[in-house]
Amino acid sequence: MTQQKTHSRLAQYINAAISISPKLQSEITKEAGYTTSNNLTMIKQGKSRVALNRIAPLANALNLCPVKLMNIALEEYEPEVFEFIQKNNTTLSPNEQAIIALYRMHVGTKEPTLGESTTDRLTQLFLELAA
């Protein structure tokens, strides 16, 4: 039986990961939460999509980065969503996240107005924090 070659980047990536994995496909199937190996076969052949809620378990079963696998899936399945996330994504450190959480705890989701006075006060505060 010849395997149909797929043009799906995600399917190719998953197929390559399965090929180099020391695990049996049945083990990967179980760890990823699928009921039969046929599910995984159809995904790696590009005949079936990976449900987005299965990306992390599948990545973990294949020892792949879940974020990278999700990015490949979104770029292929939902290009507009992927583009939006890429354009608007800012990675924050844990301390930066804590500052935003503290702001939201006191102000809620109200968008801040950054006038000159507020900017000056925040700048002074951040300079004190950095010292």
Describe the structure.
With 131 residues, this protein is mostly helical. It is 66% helix and 0% strand. It has eight helices and no strands. The longest helix has 15 residues, at 116-130. The chain is elongated, with a radius of gyration of 22 Å. The model has no long low-confidence stretch (mean pLDDT 88).
- Rg over CA atoms, rounded to whole Å, is 22 Å
Number of strands: 0
Low-confidence stretches: none
Shape: elongated
The class by helix and strand makeup works out as: mainly alpha
DSSP helix count? 8
Short characterization:
The protein has about 130 residues and is mostly helical. It has eight helices and no strands.
Jot down its keywords.
8 helices; 131 residues; elongated; 0% strand; mainly alpha
Task: Map the helices and strands.
Blueprint: H1 9-20, H2 25-32, H3 37-44, H4 55-61, H5 66-77, H6 79-88, H7 94-107, H8 116-130
Helix pairs in contact: 2-4, 4-5, 5-6
